[in-house]
Write a structure and sequence with these properties.
The protein is of the alpha/beta class. Helix content is about 50%, strand content about 10%.
């Protein structure tokens, strides 16, 4: 199968998640909505159900969700509720609502109130102190609660054997996506920013085994090509999400490719594998404990600028000329972190731009001007 054909298949999935949901239901599968961030999807898969990512939408308009949400809620969370209210996600059999930021905590309760008669809402509170033994125990307790609630929906027990197998499937998928990110940089003449985004986004709406098989085939085709002699510029992207095709097309208009990313919707999800030996619940808790360099996670080394230095190093190691930060509107953690991130980038002499974005954007004139100017500067 050609690169173009595989990418088109991924793009079709990424562009129409609802069609995927309908397909799963027609096949008799139960589907569990998974909101950001770091929910243990392996438990859903081990229950014989399909995890279905909920990261807002670039096509919806917020209307009914306004009855529940303050205007300063980020649009990702509001649009998730909107799609639950307007019937877009009616076919879900349940939803997991992590509460890792100040918007998601009350949003979990808004969803519970709004959807209590339609589908089960499974609350997930991650530990802030995720590395100490007591933090891991708390995480296991939370995951055990999710396990119990998923068993009720599935009508069957989640065995340790099934969970261990799911962890292996997910580790294989994470490895394939890490490989794809590297290959996309080496072949950015073939994998443009919009295509790169579509391939990674499709993972949220496909069973991981099926997704990984297709991605492995794509990786093999890319690896067989000679590394491209890219005449444009390369950047690293950072932020919560940057999956809007119209926004990414501006990169392409300016001969700008993505060398790597520090995006919650993309690489942060698959940076860290879970241990494949021992108790599988402990393995999932250990995986979360090992997550690091994320603006949403507590850093016990807060007196140091570890995350800023990590991002600066990512830019340098990837061979990129600069960083484009997509800052989600009304995201307090990102806004509060920006001064330290800027300092680390400035200290490393890495140019960057900060673009305020949300999923209700329809006019990209300012972004086009900023990206064009940035591309001109870093190409000098």
């Amino acid at each position: 199968m050609s690169i173009e054909t595989i990418v088109k298949e991924f793009a079709a999935v990424a562009a129409d998640p609802k069609a995927q949901l309908k397909k799963f239901k027609a096949e008799g599968k139960k589907c569990i909505g998974v909101m950001p961030y770091y929910a243990p999807e392996e438990l859903v898969a081990a229950a014989g159900m399909v995890p279905f990512g909920m990261w807002g939408s670039n096509d919806k308009t917020i209307s009914r969700a306004k009855e529940y949400c303050a205007t300063f809620y980020c649009t990702i969370a509001q649009l998730d509720l909107e799609m639950l209210l307007d019937g877009t996600l009616d076919l879900l059999d349940g939803v997991i609502t992590p509460t890792i930021c100040d918007t998601l905590r009350p949003m979990s309760q808004n969803i519970r109130v709004a959807m209590s008669e339609k589908l089960p809402c499974i609350f997930l509170a991650h530990p802030q102190n995720r590395k100490p033994a007591y933090g891991k125990k708390f995480c296991i307790d939370q995951y055990s609660h999710i396990r119990t609630e998923l068993e009720k929906i599935a009508g069957a027990s989640i065995t340790d054997a099934a969970l261990s197998e799911a962890i292996k499937v997910y580790n294989k998928s994470r490895a394939a996506r890490r490989e794809f990110v590297k290959l996309a940089s080496d072949h950015c003449d073939v994998i443009t920013p919009t295509k790169r985004s579509a391939v990674l986004k499709a993972a949220w709406f496909m069973p991981k085994g099926e997704y990984t098989e297709k991605l492995t085939a794509l990786n093999a085709e890319l690896a067989a090509l000679p590394v491209c002699d890219w005449k444009g510029t390369k950047v690293v992207t950072s932020g919560i999400i940057c999956d809007n095709p119209k926004l990414l097309e501006i990169f392409e208009e300016n001969n700008m490719a993505i060398a790597a990313d520090d995006v919650a919707h993309e690489s942060r999800v698959f940076r860290v594998d879970a241990p494949e030996t021992g108790d599988p619940m402990e393995a999932l808790a250990q995986q979360f404990a090992n997550q690091d360099y994320d603006v949403l996670l507590y850093d016990e080394h807060s007196s140091e600028n570890r995350r800023g230095e990590f991002v600066a190093k990512l830019v340098k190691d990837s061979g990129a000329k600069g960083l484009v930060l997509f800052m989600q509107q009304f995201c307090d953690p990102e806004e509060m972190e920006y001064p330290s991130l800027k300092k680390a980038l400035d200290d490393a002499k890495i140019p960057h731009i900060k673009l305020g974005v949300d999923q209700q954007m329809r006019d990209f004139g300012q972004a086009r001007t900023a990206i064009q100017a940035f591309a001109d500067v870093i190409s000098l």
